[in-house]
Amino acid sequence: MGTALKEGKIVTNGGRVLFVIGKGDSFKEAKENAYMNVDSIKCDDLFYRHDIGYQVLEKEKTND
Fold first, then answer.
1. I need a labelling partner for 11 at 20 to 30 A (CA). Which of 1, 18, 51, 63 fits?
2. How many angstroms separate the CA atoms of 64 and 58, rounded?
3. At 64, is the pLDDT very low, low, confident or very high (cuts 50, 70, 90)?
4. 54 CB contacts (<8 Å, ≥6 apart)?
5. What pTM was computed for the model?
6. Section 35-41 average pLDDT
């Protein structure tokens, strides 16, 4: 998945290179923990989506 071997090291090569998860007692907490885990990753030109799960959070707001 979007990696290559260069000089004996695995490097990013475009596309999806990993998945990050978060755990929590609620969806909101799990999402926050996932993004905290993303923040700990060191990678040049790291791109990740910021809208994952927004539909679930919107639905939870309307159910409160």
1. 51
2. 10
3. low
4. none
5. 0.65
6. 91
Q: Average pLDDT, stretch 20-48? A: 89
Owner of token pair 């309307």? 62
Say how far apart CA 44 and CA 10 lie, in whole Å.
14
Angle at 14 between CA 37 and CA 27, to 5 degrees: 30
User: Given the DSSP bridges, would you call strands 9-12 and 3-6 parallel, antiparallel or unpaired?
Assistant: antiparallel
DSSP designation for 7: T
For every residue of 23-59, DSSP letters joined together read --SSHHHHHHHHHHHHHT---TT----S-TTHHHHHH
Locate 50 and state its tokens.
């910021």
